[in-house]
Amino acid sequence: MINMFPSLKKGIGKTASLTSPRPRWGERIIEKLILFNGILAIAVLLGVFFILLRQGIPALIETPFYSFLFGTHWYPVSDPPTFGILPFFVATMWVTVISTVLAVPIGVGAAIFLAEVAPRKVADAVKPVVELLSGFPSVVMGFIGLVLLSPWVQNTLGLSSGLCGVTAGIMLAMMSLPIIVSVSEDALRAVPDEFRQAAYGLGSTRWEVIWHVCVPSALSGISAAIMLGIGRAIGETMTVLMVAGGALALPGLPTDPMMPMTAAIASGIGNAVQGGPQYHALFAIGLILFILTLFVNLIAARILDRQRRKFAAG
Amino acid sequence: MTIGNLVTLKTDPANTRAAEDGHCLRLQQVNLYYGDFHAVKDVSLDIGARSITAIIGPSGCGKSSMLRLFNRMNDLIPSARVEGLVEFDGVDIYQSGIDVVELRKRVGMVFQKPNPFPMSIYDNVAFGPRRHGIRNKRILDEIVEKSLIQAAIWDEVKDKLGQSGLSISGGQQQRLCIARVLAVEPEVILMDEPCSALDPIATLKIEDLMRILSTNYTIVIVTHNMQQAARVSDMTAFLMVGEDRAGMLVEYAHTNEIFTNPKNKKTEDYITGRFG
Predict the structure, then answer these.
(1) Nearest Cα to A111, choosing from A96, A131, A93?
(2) Which of A11, A51, A145, B220 has the fewest Cβ atoms within 10 angstroms?
(3) Range with lowest mean pLDDT among A97-111, A293-307, B188-202
(4) Is A11 helix (H, G, I), strand (E, B) or coil?
(5) Do the domain assignments include residue A66?
């Protein structure tokens, strides 16, 4: 037979036996390395959860879970101390709700504008700027809220202090906007152009194409974006510490000064005696925060999953 | 001329004229550009009502671009520019004041890749009617059933109208897309290589369907499958790329004639497989 690829044959050289393969060490090392990394990531996650449990549980034994969660008084240095975190929990809810109500329509609207309406050049110029917004350190955002936003809120709403839930909520909205815009825009851009063409071909107007085809098709991505935004708002610490007002009383109105859970931990941990009751109580707040964000993520995962099953091919 | 024009066509003398000589679509000296690129050059042809016209030609000769002239789909490409006269039912559809939404309702389109929306089969078919203001559930049910029956897919999907339009096979998806177009009751159906993503059996089903539909609808189909053009169409237009890379009409005649007795040497070379 004529050898058509002489150079190839030379390159392969001696053929190895089929039954006793070469050891391929490089392959094995990489496999082990990847396995190790995977285990490490899971171990770190479990470790953090374990520490939270270990440090938080004693507080929940000392103060019954019910009165811990629904108690309205936080007197960590009284004798005996009282640990009720309802004011913090409600504060977190207020600022998160305000932030979400503001950020979701604006963010999704901006994403629709960037993905569907704006000329490509404009979108390509604006998106990095929006994403840059998420790069601002939270302390800077807190500072802006402190000197610029809070006086405005105070005057506009006629409050005795501009440091309150509304101010914190607005700042959080600004901070969760970039992620909502960015992820929603990606989701809209991922909608195949065939859908748009089909809709235009049926005599739809531009708005109908956007509202009845593009947004529903991108809904899973947009939901994920919203959940990520909510997660950001719940977990944000420095900004709310600076602008939410820091009051320990149960906030009845969003315009009351308040102390979200993250801020409560950050402001309390410096004074808490290590291993003391307050120390454990702060960890217990952390545990509840963790469960809260886990919950948000689970909801997001469920929505994503349901969407995927609904639209799945085959 | 205004939007009203397309709606009140029936009394327009130009329309009567168009109806008399049986022409539904007409191109006169049409040129299409994408920016500097000359995609379609100097094409003139008349397409008769309630017939099937095939547009054939080698890849990149401007077949699809030409098809998209008829429902102004090229408008979606910002750099596209059209010169010459494109008529539908005797109306110049590129004059100012034309209601493109209304035009596309009457000149429907089926695309190369089956593209059902990611929603239920029912919602896919009801999409067009809903956009055009039909909310009554009973009427929508009727339209959906009628369209699916017309598209010869009713028996296969009647028990799963609530399932995703993406859950059925490619051939079924394409017939669903045809049903979706039929649901808005167009007069013309443009088909852009509707079978290129389908297997031979699904292809034959679509071709049978086209023959049945052509008794009521004017169908224009772009295809790179010459046998398909020969099997299904009444008239055939052969397009080719000229020396300046612009697509131009080489020959337009009855399908029989094109395939048995082509006037142009290039047509003969193409259909006998000497190039393309």
Answers:
(1) A131
(2) A11
(3) A293-307
(4) helix
(5) no
Question: What would the DSSP string read from start to end of A207-256?
Answer: HHHIIIIIHHHTHHHHHHHHHHHHHHHHH--HHHHHHSB---SPP-STTS
Which residues in chain A are closer than 8 Å to B115, comparing Cβ atoms?
Answer: 192, 194-195, 197-198
Kindly state whether residue A188 falls inside one of the protein's structural domains: yes
Is A227 within the bounds of a domain? yes
Separation between Cα atoms, residue A75 and residue A307, nearest integer Å: 46
- Of B76, B117, B164, which is closest to A195 when you measure between CB atoms? B117
CATH architecture of B3-271: 3-Layer(aba) Sandwich (3.40)
Read off the tokens for B153: 């897919």
Q: Which residues pair with A279 in a beta bridge?
A: none
Q: What's the mean pLDDT when you consider all of chain B?
A: 87
CB pairs under 8 A between A and B: 79
CB atoms within 10 A of CB B252: 20
Return the DSSP state at B190: E
Q: What's the average model confidence in pLDDT over A42-60?
A: 91
pLDDT in tens, B155-207: 999 999 999 999 999 999 999 999 999 999 999 999 999 998 888 888 998 89
- What ipTM does this complex have? 0.85
CATH number of domain containing A194: 1.10.3720.10
- Alpha-carbon distance B21 to nearest alpha carbon in chain A (angstroms): 28
Query: So what's the pLDDT on residue A100?
Result: 95
Q: What is the pTM of this model?
A: 0.79
Residue A120 has pLDDT above 50, yes or no: yes
Q: Which domain holds residue A96?
A: 82-274
- Mutate one of A202, A205, A311 to test the B interface: name it (highest B CB count within 10 A): A202
Q: What is the mean pLDDT of chain A?
A: 87
Test A205 with B101 for CB contact under 8 angstroms: yes
Of A195, A199, A311, the CB nearest to B164: A311
Q: What are the chain A neighbours of B101 within 8 Å (beta carbons)?
A: 203-205
Q: In this complex, do A213 and B103 lie within 8 Å of one another by their Cβ atoms?
A: no
